[in-house]
From TrEMBL:
Gene3D superfamilies: Nucleoside Triphosphate Pyrophosphohydrolase. SUPFAM superfamilies: Nudix. This is NUDIX hydrolase. Residues 9-139 form the Nudix hydrolase domain. Its cofactor is Mg(2+). The lineage of its organism: Bacteria, Pseudomonadati, Pseudomonadota, Alphaproteobacteria, Hyphomicrobiales.
Amino acid sequence: MSRPPALPPLVPGVSILCHRNGDVLLIRRGKAPYAGFWSLPGGKAEAGESLLQAAQRELLEETGVTALLGEPVDALIIESRKEDGAIRARFHLTVFMGAYVSGEPIAGDDAAEACFMPLSGLDNLEMTPGTAERIRKLMAC
């Protein structure tokens, strides 16, 4: 019997829901997967940094914004697939949420655009899977 291919290891990453006056900070992804789709800022944790430090760094690098981030509010596993459907990479994302502190949204790093968006505008955007629902759920808490 042949064995299924081994799954790639889980890579630790972060996602950040920064809010200001009821609006949420979004980025339009500049790279695959989901290039051109809107999402929350985030990325991989670097060696030696805590997940909170990774969240603060990724938020600033991708958007130029800082936020008062608290404890993690959610976690999920994201799989990136090849064209043939095989799993390319797996990410364990820890979601942080916090109120805007400073900075004006300017796309940087992997982001093509960055802006604050009212919740009512989420339905008009092509977003990464599950992101709009996650934002609404977390903002309702």
